[in-house]
Amino acid sequence: MGRRRTVVVVGVGAAGAMVAVRICEGAVRRGRALDLVLVEPGAVAGRGVAYATDDPRHRLNVPAGNMSCRAEEPGDFVRWLCRHGVPEAAAADFVERRRYGAYLADTLGRAIIGARGTVRVRRLRTRVAGCRWRGAGAGARVELADGGTLDADCVVLATGAGPVAVPGWASEGLRASGRFVVDPWAPGALDAVRGDVLLVGSGLTAVDVALRLDRVGRTVHAVSRGGRLPRAHAEHPRPAAVCEDPLDGLPLAGLRAAVRRHVARVLRAQGDWRPAVDGLRPLTARLWAALSEEDRAAFVERDSALWNVHRHRMPPVTARAVSRMRRTRRLRLRAGRVEGFWPGADGGVVAALATAGGTEELAVGWVVNCTGTHPPVAEGRDPLWRGLLADGEAVPGPLGMGVATDGGRLRGADGRAARALWTLGAPRRGELWETTAVPEIRVQAAAVAEAVLDHLGEDGS
Ligand SMILES: Cc1cc2nc3c(=O)[nH]c(=O)nc-3n(C[C@H](O)[C@H](O)[C@H](O)COP(=O)(O)OP(=O)(O)OC[C@H]3O[C@@H](n4cnc5c(N)ncnc54)[C@H](O)[C@@H]3O)c2cc1C
After folding, report:
1. For residue 381, what pLDDT is reported?
2. Cβ of 63 less than 6 Å from ligand 1
3. Whose C-alpha lies nearest to ligand 1, atom 4?
4. How much is the pLDDT for 435?
5. CATH of 172-231+314-369, one of 3.40.50.800, 3.50.50.60, 3.40.190.10, 1.20.200.10
6. Which residues pair with 200 in a beta bridge?
7. pLDDT single digits (tens) 264-277
8. Measured from the CB, is residue 425 less than 6 Å from ligand 1?
């Protein structure tokens, strides 16, 4: 018998939970005894940013039938719902996000219990502040924010997108006003909000925040460059439509034209554009990888906003709630840019908005950043990723988004993916573009867990 090996999973949101589940199950299947350390500062492992909400109006934006934590068992989440208080649950339902958080936490708990005797699991409620790779035989030294250290043979960095960036449009004055929410997902971030509100951004985050802040007597204003809300999912979705034209190898201009033809064809045939967009989903990572750096930058600048509103849609029930808010003018949407802020009455804020109609001054109590922008890892505030980049154990991914990997294994400054350090989800954004939703994360989690177990078996220990 070789020495017992240690795997550290850093961050236990959805991605970390899925990796841990797969490691537990794979270790039992392979008969490989190991120590698994889960490091997560949050109170409950498995919920992360998206599924920690307790607001029943916050729904999944993906149907339940596509949210199983195992791609090969698509019915797993729906079956779980049926056994846990939603007996009528169906694959097409857009379920409350808090239920999904409970499903992940429960699935993780059951996997840990099922692996008892093979996998010894420890949960540490702290952050990882650094990770030093010490060489092939020696593994990694993981530094904890509470001053402790861990020696690991393999490390999986499931940290999500990290802290939200302070946006460039937020002036010094606004930041100092005490009336500005940088990250609406930070626990309790919206608790102090009073009076009318300006949301900057109009994507899925803005929709959730608007629903959360909706009440009689309050106007929620939202402003974004395009002034577009996410489109709604169909009440009765149709299956994804495969694109008839070959898309592989096309530069961005050719891709735009081919996608437009595909959408028009599907719209003519089915009366709905959604199956056309859904049919592109399995191809996105490959198409993105084949684009030149210049084309990727042009896509992000010119096309991504339009892509996002069609691709990341609202559940029908959410769309109805948003329509109600707009009809009663409790939600008012504008296309425009924020030009500046200055102090208003009662400690509030006046925002200057440049819109097609000219400059408009809007007096609100609070301003909430809903742009959901995360800085490139190299500029981010997370000491873990900054340290890995500084030590050359990681390098930025395309366009500086996330980090470069080889199938999830970190590439170092030497160009090689030789360290037993893996990541998944948002840190692979530059490489894959679409990588932050469960249908992508669950596939990556299964692959990372197998790669980790293969690695532990490589030296025959
Ligand atoms: C509001 C919202 C709604 C969403 N809705 C859906 C949906 O309906 N369907 C869907 O498929 N996707 C949805 N998504 C996408 C979502 O990003 C993924 O589904 C998933 O939650 C991502 O999980 P993650 O574990 O990668 O990241 P996170 O949820 O961000 O989890 C990362 C975890 O890592 C921890 N962490 C970070 N750094 C460290 C560190 N240094 N040390 C220790 N721990 C650390 C954090 O505390 C956190 O718990 C939504 C996203 C958001 C923001």
Report:
1. 77
2. no
3. 50
4. 92
5. 3.50.50.60
6. 223, 369
7. 999 999 999 999 99
8. yes
